[in-house]
Design goal:
Helices cover 40% and strands 16% of the residues. The protein is α/β, with parallel strands linked by helices and 284 residues long. The protein has a seven-stranded parallel β-sheet, with helices on both faces. The chain has a two-stranded parallel ribbon with strand order 7-9.
Amino acid sequence: MSGLDSTLVIGATGTTGRRVTAGLLAEGHHVKAAGRTATPVEGAQAVRFDWNEPTTWGDALYGVERVYLVPPIGSSDPATVMLPFLHEARTAGVRRAVLLSASAIPAGGPAVGQVHRVLPDLFEQWAVLRPSWFMQNFTGSTPHARSIREGGDIRTASGDGRIGFVDARDIAAVAVRALTDAKAPDTDLILTGPQTLSHDDVAAILTEATGRTVVHRHLTFDQLRDRWAAEIPLEFATMLAAMDRAIADGAEDRTTDTVERLTGRPAGTFRAFVEREVVRGKDV
Protein backbone atom coordinates (compact mmCIF):
# COMPACT_ATOMS: atom_id res chain seq x y z
CA MET A 1 0.00 0.00 0.00
CA SER A 2 1.32 3.42 -0.89
CA GLY A 3 1.71 6.04 1.81
CA LEU A 4 0.21 8.66 -0.53
CA ASP A 5 -2.81 10.46 0.95
CA SER A 6 -2.81 8.19 3.99
CA THR A 7 -4.22 8.59 7.46
CA LEU A 8 -1.76 7.86 10.24
CA VAL A 9 -3.44 6.19 13.21
CA ILE A 10 -1.25 6.32 16.31
CA GLY A 11 -1.97 3.53 18.75
CA ALA A 12 -3.59 1.52 15.96
CA THR A 13 -4.04 -1.60 18.10
CA GLY A 14 -5.38 0.27 21.15
CA THR A 15 -8.89 0.76 22.46
CA THR A 16 -9.92 3.51 20.04
CA GLY A 17 -7.11 3.20 17.51
CA ARG A 18 -8.03 -0.27 16.30
CA ARG A 19 -11.63 0.79 15.86
CA VAL A 20 -10.61 3.96 14.02
CA THR A 21 -8.38 1.88 11.76
CA ALA A 22 -11.19 -0.56 11.02
CA GLY A 23 -13.62 2.27 10.31
CA LEU A 24 -11.25 3.99 7.90
CA LEU A 25 -10.45 0.76 6.07
CA ALA A 26 -14.15 -0.06 5.75
CA GLU A 27 -14.60 3.23 3.87
CA GLY A 28 -11.68 2.50 1.56
CA HIS A 29 -9.11 4.87 3.04
CA HIS A 30 -5.37 4.17 3.11
CA VAL A 31 -4.21 3.72 6.68
CA LYS A 32 -0.77 3.67 8.24
CA ALA A 33 -1.21 1.71 11.46
CA ALA A 34 1.38 3.03 13.92
CA GLY A 35 2.64 1.34 17.05
CA ARG A 36 5.83 0.64 18.93
CA THR A 37 6.17 -2.83 17.37
CA ALA A 38 4.53 -2.16 13.98
CA THR A 39 2.00 -4.91 14.66
CA PRO A 40 0.49 -6.11 11.36
CA VAL A 41 -3.08 -4.91 10.77
CA GLU A 42 -4.91 -6.52 7.86
CA GLY A 43 -5.56 -4.00 5.11
CA ALA A 44 -3.32 -1.32 6.63
CA GLN A 45 0.38 -0.46 6.33
CA ALA A 46 2.00 -1.21 9.67
CA VAL A 47 4.67 1.30 10.70
CA ARG A 48 6.84 1.54 13.78
CA PHE A 49 6.18 4.62 15.90
CA ASP A 50 7.28 5.57 19.39
CA TRP A 51 6.57 8.97 20.96
CA ASN A 52 9.91 8.76 22.76
CA GLU A 53 11.94 7.89 19.65
CA PRO A 54 11.86 10.81 17.18
CA THR A 55 13.80 8.71 14.68
CA THR A 56 10.57 6.72 14.09
CA TRP A 57 8.50 9.79 13.23
CA GLY A 58 9.69 10.54 9.69
CA ASP A 59 8.81 7.18 8.13
CA ALA A 60 5.46 7.18 9.92
CA LEU A 61 4.61 10.63 8.53
CA TYR A 62 5.68 10.01 4.93
CA GLY A 63 2.73 10.57 2.59
CA VAL A 64 0.32 11.31 5.43
CA GLU A 65 -2.35 14.01 5.16
CA ARG A 66 -4.36 13.19 8.28
CA VAL A 67 -3.37 11.92 11.71
CA TYR A 68 -5.25 10.46 14.65
CA LEU A 69 -3.37 11.34 17.82
CA VAL A 70 -3.46 9.14 20.91
CA PRO A 71 -1.22 10.65 23.62
CA PRO A 72 1.50 8.56 25.26
CA ILE A 73 -0.10 6.39 27.91
CA GLY A 74 0.51 7.29 31.52
CA SER A 75 2.28 10.58 30.85
CA SER A 76 1.36 13.60 32.98
CA ASP A 77 3.17 15.90 30.51
CA PRO A 78 2.51 14.54 26.99
CA ALA A 79 3.11 17.95 25.38
CA THR A 80 6.87 17.46 25.87
CA VAL A 81 6.97 14.80 23.15
CA MET A 82 3.78 15.58 21.24
CA LEU A 83 4.49 19.20 20.33
CA PRO A 84 7.80 18.47 18.55
CA PHE A 85 6.05 15.68 16.66
CA LEU A 86 3.19 17.97 15.64
CA HIS A 87 5.60 20.56 14.30
CA GLU A 88 7.33 17.84 12.28
CA ALA A 89 3.94 16.60 11.07
CA ARG A 90 2.97 20.02 9.80
CA THR A 91 6.30 20.37 7.99
CA ALA A 92 5.79 16.91 6.46
CA GLY A 93 2.46 17.95 4.93
CA VAL A 94 -0.15 16.79 7.43
CA ARG A 95 -3.24 18.95 6.89
CA ARG A 96 -5.68 17.58 9.46
CA ALA A 97 -5.12 16.41 13.04
CA VAL A 98 -7.66 14.76 15.36
CA LEU A 99 -6.58 14.53 18.99
CA LEU A 100 -7.99 12.15 21.59
CA SER A 101 -8.34 14.02 24.88
CA ALA A 102 -10.94 13.72 27.66
CA SER A 103 -14.10 15.49 28.73
CA ALA A 104 -12.48 16.36 32.06
CA ILE A 105 -9.57 18.21 30.43
CA PRO A 106 -10.27 21.55 28.68
CA ALA A 107 -7.95 23.40 26.33
CA GLY A 108 -5.04 24.69 28.37
CA GLY A 109 -5.75 22.23 31.17
CA PRO A 110 -3.32 19.67 32.55
CA ALA A 111 -1.62 16.94 30.51
CA VAL A 112 -3.12 16.69 27.00
CA GLY A 113 -4.95 19.98 27.56
CA GLN A 114 -1.67 21.71 26.70
CA VAL A 115 -1.63 19.97 23.31
CA HIS A 116 -5.28 20.87 22.77
CA ARG A 117 -4.46 24.52 23.38
CA VAL A 118 -1.97 24.79 20.51
CA LEU A 119 -3.53 22.38 17.98
CA PRO A 120 -5.61 25.07 16.16
CA ASP A 121 -2.46 27.15 15.66
CA LEU A 122 -0.65 24.25 14.02
CA PHE A 123 -3.32 22.88 11.69
CA GLU A 124 -6.05 24.60 9.70
CA GLN A 125 -8.17 21.42 9.92
CA TRP A 126 -8.49 19.89 13.34
CA ALA A 127 -10.67 18.40 16.04
CA VAL A 128 -10.23 17.44 19.67
CA LEU A 129 -12.32 14.51 20.86
CA ARG A 130 -13.20 14.85 24.52
CA PRO A 131 -15.01 11.64 25.46
CA SER A 132 -16.43 11.00 28.87
CA TRP A 133 -15.23 7.89 30.68
CA PHE A 134 -15.01 4.79 28.49
CA MET A 135 -17.42 1.90 28.95
CA GLN A 136 -14.40 -0.27 28.12
CA ASN A 137 -12.92 0.72 31.50
CA PHE A 138 -14.87 -2.25 32.87
CA THR A 139 -13.43 -4.90 30.53
CA GLY A 140 -10.11 -6.45 29.61
CA SER A 141 -7.05 -5.79 31.78
CA THR A 142 -8.16 -2.39 33.16
CA PRO A 143 -8.03 -1.79 36.94
CA HIS A 144 -11.83 -1.85 37.24
CA ALA A 145 -12.05 -5.11 35.30
CA ARG A 146 -9.37 -6.73 37.44
CA SER A 147 -11.09 -5.53 40.61
CA ILE A 148 -14.41 -6.94 39.44
CA ARG A 149 -12.87 -10.32 38.59
CA GLU A 150 -10.77 -10.57 41.75
CA GLY A 151 -13.08 -9.05 44.38
CA GLY A 152 -16.46 -8.45 42.79
CA ASP A 153 -16.18 -4.71 43.31
CA ILE A 154 -15.56 -1.35 41.65
CA ARG A 155 -13.47 1.06 43.71
CA THR A 156 -13.74 4.80 43.12
CA ALA A 157 -13.72 8.15 44.89
CA SER A 158 -16.58 9.38 42.69
CA GLY A 159 -19.24 8.98 45.38
CA ASP A 160 -22.74 9.24 43.90
CA GLY A 161 -21.50 11.34 40.97
CA ARG A 162 -22.93 10.49 37.57
CA ILE A 163 -21.06 9.96 34.29
CA GLY A 164 -22.14 9.83 30.65
CA PHE A 165 -20.11 6.70 29.94
CA VAL A 166 -19.34 6.35 26.21
CA ASP A 167 -18.57 3.31 24.07
CA ALA A 168 -15.17 3.31 22.34
CA ARG A 169 -16.98 2.23 19.17
CA ASP A 170 -18.85 5.53 19.19
CA ILE A 171 -15.67 7.50 19.86
CA ALA A 172 -14.03 5.81 16.89
CA ALA A 173 -17.03 6.45 14.65
CA VAL A 174 -16.83 10.16 15.45
CA ALA A 175 -13.07 10.10 14.86
CA VAL A 176 -13.55 8.64 11.38
CA ARG A 177 -15.98 11.44 10.51
CA ALA A 178 -13.66 14.08 11.98
CA LEU A 179 -10.76 12.71 9.94
CA THR A 180 -12.48 12.22 6.59
CA ASP A 181 -15.53 14.49 6.19
CA ALA A 182 -15.04 17.24 3.62
CA LYS A 183 -15.14 19.86 6.38
CA ALA A 184 -13.24 19.27 9.60
CA PRO A 185 -15.04 20.04 12.88
CA ASP A 186 -12.40 22.67 13.79
CA THR A 187 -13.56 22.52 17.41
CA ASP A 188 -13.53 20.27 20.44
CA LEU A 189 -16.28 17.68 20.77
CA ILE A 190 -17.67 16.38 24.07
CA LEU A 191 -18.66 12.73 23.57
CA THR A 192 -20.99 10.88 25.91
CA GLY A 193 -23.41 8.01 25.92
CA PRO A 194 -27.18 8.64 25.99
CA GLN A 195 -27.54 8.55 29.79
CA THR A 196 -25.61 9.31 32.96
CA LEU A 197 -24.90 6.59 35.49
CA SER A 198 -23.31 6.46 38.92
CA HIS A 199 -20.89 3.68 39.71
CA ASP A 200 -23.63 2.20 41.89
CA ASP A 201 -25.77 2.05 38.72
CA VAL A 202 -22.90 0.44 36.81
CA ALA A 203 -22.49 -2.21 39.50
CA ALA A 204 -26.23 -2.94 39.43
CA ILE A 205 -26.27 -3.35 35.63
CA LEU A 206 -23.23 -5.64 35.73
CA THR A 207 -24.85 -7.70 38.48
CA GLU A 208 -28.12 -8.07 36.60
CA ALA A 209 -26.51 -8.85 33.24
CA THR A 210 -23.87 -11.30 34.44
CA GLY A 211 -25.57 -12.90 37.41
CA ARG A 212 -22.49 -12.19 39.53
CA THR A 213 -22.75 -9.71 42.39
CA VAL A 214 -20.74 -6.55 41.77
CA VAL A 215 -20.67 -3.72 44.32
CA HIS A 216 -19.28 -0.19 44.31
CA ARG A 217 -16.76 0.49 47.09
CA HIS A 218 -16.60 4.18 47.99
CA LEU A 219 -13.01 5.29 48.59
CA THR A 220 -11.63 8.60 49.79
CA PHE A 221 -9.44 10.74 47.55
CA ASP A 222 -6.33 9.66 49.48
CA GLN A 223 -7.25 5.97 49.29
CA LEU A 224 -7.76 6.10 45.55
CA ARG A 225 -4.61 8.14 44.93
CA ASP A 226 -2.54 5.64 46.90
CA ARG A 227 -4.15 2.74 45.07
CA TRP A 228 -3.26 4.25 41.70
CA ALA A 229 0.22 5.21 42.90
CA ALA A 230 1.03 1.54 43.43
CA GLU A 231 0.90 1.12 39.63
CA ILE A 232 1.68 4.52 38.08
CA PRO A 233 3.71 7.66 38.95
CA LEU A 234 2.35 9.63 41.91
CA GLU A 235 1.75 12.80 39.87
CA PHE A 236 -0.43 10.94 37.39
CA ALA A 237 -2.16 9.01 40.18
CA THR A 238 -3.02 12.28 41.91
CA MET A 239 -4.48 13.69 38.70
CA LEU A 240 -6.67 10.61 38.19
CA ALA A 241 -7.91 10.72 41.79
CA ALA A 242 -8.73 14.41 41.32
CA MET A 243 -10.86 13.47 38.31
CA ASP A 244 -12.87 11.13 40.52
CA ARG A 245 -13.34 13.91 43.04
CA ALA A 246 -14.60 16.13 40.23
CA ILE A 247 -17.09 13.43 39.25
CA ALA A 248 -18.38 13.40 42.82
CA ASP A 249 -18.90 17.16 42.50
CA GLY A 250 -20.99 16.71 39.32
CA ALA A 251 -18.43 17.57 36.63
CA GLU A 252 -19.40 14.63 34.38
CA ASP A 253 -23.17 14.69 34.93
CA ARG A 254 -24.10 15.57 31.34
CA THR A 255 -24.98 14.06 27.99
CA THR A 256 -24.47 15.42 24.48
CA ASP A 257 -25.87 14.58 21.05
CA THR A 258 -22.44 14.72 19.40
CA VAL A 259 -22.25 11.02 18.48
CA GLU A 260 -25.62 11.04 16.73
CA ARG A 261 -25.03 14.44 15.15
CA LEU A 262 -21.74 13.40 13.54
CA THR A 263 -22.43 9.73 12.77
CA GLY A 264 -26.17 9.71 12.10
CA ARG A 265 -26.88 7.04 14.72
CA PRO A 266 -27.51 7.27 18.45
CA ALA A 267 -24.80 6.52 20.96
CA GLY A 268 -24.92 3.06 22.47
CA THR A 269 -26.18 2.41 26.00
CA PHE A 270 -24.11 0.91 28.80
CA ARG A 271 -26.50 -2.04 29.06
CA ALA A 272 -26.04 -2.83 25.35
CA PHE A 273 -22.28 -2.59 25.81
CA VAL A 274 -22.36 -5.03 28.74
CA GLU A 275 -24.46 -7.50 26.75
CA ARG A 276 -22.02 -7.30 23.84
CA GLU A 277 -18.61 -7.22 25.49
CA VAL A 278 -19.11 -8.71 28.94
CA VAL A 279 -21.89 -11.28 28.58
CA ARG A 280 -21.16 -12.41 25.03
CA GLY A 281 -17.55 -11.26 25.06
CA LYS A 282 -17.74 -9.92 21.53
CA ASP A 283 -16.96 -6.53 20.04
CA VAL A 284 -19.16 -6.53 16.95
